[in-house]
């Protein structure tokens, strides 16, 4: 791949992702002025199952493994949309645990919880968690490594 | 196995990659019989879709034979000839259950990327970047199909491979545009773009009862193909003022429904197109909405504009004032194929929906990079090149 092409690919990936990321960060910054800190927020999904199908003591393995370390909130979603399942860590986390560097390094504990919540939803709805093909690529470039890093963090990040 | 890989902006090559493996109990492995170039591939080949990685296998519109079946698959067995929907749906989340399959909650393996870009993740699509699921594409000898009971459809006896191939993506995409735009008997429908999706949207509008359908493009061979095989009226936008022409043909009202089947790399012959090109190249906007703007201006008061072309980010000079002040309904969607494919296969089998004319070229996998070059430059009358890994 030529240098020009590499730069263009990197620029394109960075521009698209940065725009979305900047919007999300800006929104969070504005929200912080009045809302609870992100660290206190429930992580929530809506599961397309009846409330009776989701019991706090019978959650799928990815959440069950957290045991007493998480709080769980389960309630019916309005309008026949299933059941809202929300979780959060009981133990307060230091601010540094949620820093940008911690998130890039994959050390933010909410990333693992977010991933576990997504997997629990998939297991409850579809019976399995869809996995990507492996290996993700047969060779790498600087731009590809960046996308690879984003992909590794992607199931633990996002607006959920 | 051999596969067509994205290696960088405007660079494709055929390479050796590992064979796919079953990764879930609901997966099947399909041996490719035929796949096809799609206009939306050009956006990612050209670097306009972020989160591509060198070595990514592209391709999402395909047909093949089931060669391996996961333990929880119920509908398929080895040897089935199947057409596979380009979007993967789990079949059981709220979106799939409500026939909004491209919005599936459980098939994008990188949901955080989509959420950062759009505020919510789409479902996964074969071979269409790590933002759209990170799934390996279908321009290969074999492909893994997750949740195959929901996304793979047995092709009826009597329907040939080439006709069935386009029911994977371009036919349901076109049909969905006309359907979700609410086309009804008596409507006048205008369709921007005479590629495969635009042609299928025009045909769908007719089958849904439209009184008149008018297709717009600039390429003589595509206009001629649309007129001959689809039976719609046509407008060459390089030869006339499209808005004036549409007003004249519709008694001054404008079309009731306008379907945009062009996408983020629209062409045009106005100063606005030059403006869009410059802004896109400078990355001051990600997409060129030239056709969308025209559709919004041309649409009759109170009408519907459906954006069927692929857009990935932000556009400039969007005529929101026209949407509000003309009371338009503006909709868009990626393709909810599972909702339509069984019905469309039946229509193809019944001879109501011709698709084989779209296959203007047929190539081997080794020739695929050249086919995409031809497809991109629209040389030799290429509308769709069919890639046959088995030769």
Automatic annotation (TrEMBL), chain A:
Region called Disordered, residue ranges: 125-160
UniProt superkingdom: Bacteria
Protein name, per record: Secreted protein
Taxonomic source organism: Streptomyces roseiscleroticus
Organism lineage: Bacteria, Bacillati, Actinomycetota, Actinomycetes, Kitasatosporales
Automatic annotation (TrEMBL), chain B:
Cofactor(s) required, per the database record: Zn(2+)
Keywords carried by this UniProt record: Metal-binding, Zinc
Entry superkingdom: Bacteria
Annotated Gene3D superfamilies: Medium-chain alcohol dehydrogenases, catalytic domain (3.90.180.10), NAD(P)-binding Rossmann-like Domain (3.40.50.720)
GO molecular function, one term: metal ion binding
Domain Alcohol dehydrogenase-like C-terminal positions: 196-265
Family matches, as InterPro entries: ADH-like_C (IPR013149), ADH-like_N (IPR013154), GroES-like_sf (IPR011032), NAD(P)-bd_dom_sf (IPR036291)
Domain Alcohol dehydrogenase-like N-terminal: 24-156
PANTHER family associated with the record: DEHYDROGENASE, ZINC-CONTAINING, PUTATIVE (AFU_ORTHOLOGUE AFUA_2G02810)-RELATED, ZINC-TYPE ALCOHOL DEHYDROGENASE-LIKE
Name this polypeptide is given: Glutathione-dependent formaldehyde dehydrogenase
Biological source species: Streptomyces ruber
Gene: fdh
